[in-house]
Specification:
Blueprint lengths: L31 H6 L4 H8 L6 H11 L11 H6 L11 E6 L9 H7 L1 H15 L3 E6 L4 H16 L15 E6 L9 H8 L23 E5 H5 L1 H7 L1 H5 L9 E8 L5 E6 L4 H8 L9 E5 L8 E2 L10 H7 L7 E6 L4 H15 L5 H18 L5 H14 L7 H15 L1 H9 L7
Parallel strand pairs: 1-2, 1-4, 2-3, 5-9
Antiparallel strand pairs: 5-6, 7-8, 7-9
Helix pairs in contact: 2-6, 2-10, 3-6, 5-6, 14-15, 14-17, 15-16, 15-17, 16-17, 17-18
The structure holds flavin mononucleotide and iron/sulfur cluster.
Length: 440
Amino acid sequence: MPSPSRNGSTKAGDWRTYERVLLPSIRNLHRFDVYVKHGGYKALRAVLTHTKKWAPGNVIEAVKASGLRGRGGAGFPTGLKWSFMPPVDPGTPRYIACNGDESEPGTFKDRQLMEYNPHLIFEGILIAAWAMQIDATYLYIRGEYADWIRHMEYELGKLYTEGYVGQRIMGTDFSSEIIIHKGAGAYICGEETSLLESVEGKRAYPRIKPPFPAQKGLWGRPTTVNNVETLACAPLIINRGAEWFAGIGPEKHPGPVLYGMSGHVERPGVYEYPTGMLITDLIEEVAGGMRGGKKLKAIVPGGASVPVLRADMIDGVTMDTESLREAGSMMGTAGMLVMDEDTDMVKFLRRVTRFYHHESCGQCTPCREGTGWIENLVTRIDEGEGTLRDLDILLELCDQMEGRTVCALADAAAWPVRNTIQRFREEFEAKCRQSIYAMA
Ligand SMILES: Cc1cc2nc3c(=O)[nH]c(=O)nc-3n(C[C@H](O)[C@H](O)[C@H](O)COP(=O)(O)O)c2cc1C
Ligand code: SF4
């Protein structure tokens, strides 16, 4: 949040006293005038007027020092990503693609930022644009978010009228455009290189990497792809300092983060807290506990593609890269799906595999065929027609998919299969044993 705060450094342990900075509780903050009244665009003005202190390289160093990691799923260090952009070559345009495609099941946090604090996103984009000397940013918003697209377009219009974007921003020599691009309606459009294809007006087929977008991005020009929430952190880092940001949550994965809580909890929703929250605190305290007092069975900590954890695997586990890796999962988008004791894990996996089969772009054989096969096999098991041999075939299919395709969608489809079968094998075996082919 651009306004002054009581927060010093906040460790996840102090989460009860945490003051929200991404989604502060300020009435009508989505409006340009209200945002400015509460200190909005102060960080942008600072970097564009104190151009020595905030030379582009210094902004990148500050983002590196803050420890900010991408909030789009992979958790890549943001400052490092910005430093991959090649030196400015006059006459060669440079771009940002800001990723607001948000189609991962269980993930709905960028939408909250767009609705309640859109100018934090615009300010973050413009600070990143200064740091990387960007000519234009394409803000790619999920096509189904029609209301939020209209809302963002309206607020962006205000920004142009006020001279805070476009030519000679705030009367300085710096010019940079923002263009809102409506998403093409598929999960794959959120993969960074297919997003670039989509902006270029083509079918959203992921590109083979290398070359990475920093070398060859939009129209073959240097491009950085960042998630909406990632860029919204930039004004906070400039206003309050990299040290402040680095002091929130765990050292290797710090900062404020939007947790999306869904499933069998009493109070589903988006909650802003430091990284490194105990999973048990998020479920019991933040989201109001299990719905109807049921027992917890499993969680998926960061969007549908990260490995599922059994209830007995989450004791003492915190929401950050290191702790989740040790526990056998990943932070992903911090969108946590919570499942109670009545959940049928075969049905859960059936739903997930259906999604990935539907969303595969079909470019690579292991993904196009593999997602179809795994959906068919899990469906067969769920419908009482599976055999124990099918479980081994499913795991073999995962081996054939992981790490063998153009993009990570195939991995994202294989991991839930592998982990759900391994971690809930008795449920899968029970369905196979009851099946009409139990002797097979
Ligand atoms: C199939 C697929 C879908 C993805 N969808 C999104 C998305 O909707 N939003 C997003 O920010 N990142 C998404 N990602 C991750 C992006 O490829 C990329 O890592 C991210 O936008 C980088 O931003 P960050 O470094 O700020 O996290 C997706 C990746 C894959 C493989
Ligand atoms: S892995 Fe799947 S989604 Fe990704 S490019 Fe290949 S076919 Fe398309």
